[in-house]
Design a protein that fits this description.
The chain contains 8 helices and 13 strands.
Length: 278
Amino acid sequence: MSIPCRKAIVNNTEINVAPLETVSLRLLLQKDEGERIKLYSAARSLGFFYLDVSDSKPYLADVERLYSVTEQYFAQSEENLLKDFRMDDEFRGYKGGNNWGSLEILRDDVISSEVPLPDIIESDSATVQRFISASHEVSHVILGELSKSLWPDSEHHLEEKHHPKKRNNSSLKVYRGPTLENLADVRDNTHTDGGSLTLLYTDKWGTQVELPWNKEWAWVEAKPGHAIVTVGDTLQALTGGLLYSCRHRVSQPVGGFEERWAVTYFFRPENDTSLVPL
């Protein structure tokens, strides 16, 4: 089914804005059937949706604090940043390049305290722990409600591949990705997310999605008090394609330099999960 985009103007440039559904976390927690149906529809059609977390004030306060922590972290010299680089480790530490950078912190490492946080973030360890814990719980709420829609009369459920006590690579990942002066310098990075769910918090235009019904690209608008949720390849595989992992890319609608930060939570399955339909 084709859903029309709305138009928006960014610095005198007209853009198409993706028609993302908004799902309420509060109503999901109340087991509202209508909200569960809305969630399932969004996860099947576009695989991107807004999650309204505006009732979760302490959680949003932690998101705001993590924006500040991210800015402080990437204000360090390249020499200091490289101290957190982990060779041949996809899910830990600092990664960076010309005009961008990321820092990833595994949930399992925070729980076990086996891997220390970077020095500049250690003073905010409680914020990191709270955000990871709350984001993991939110992801399980989404997972549980999707399972009810997928298999209402079956023992199958997505949680059986996401046991909270088993080792997994779920993580907090923060980004610095400033916009570039010239649009022509923006490289194509089209991809799908490999995990189960991604919760993205940002306050800038930065994500484009490929609409499955016409293969055109549309922008995802950042909304205060909302996470942008992405269905990943793992859920698409475990459901035999019933849920949709959407192609998307990080870009910018207009030229011009501007700092841009993002806070994400990557919710991933148990390590060594076999990606075959349940």
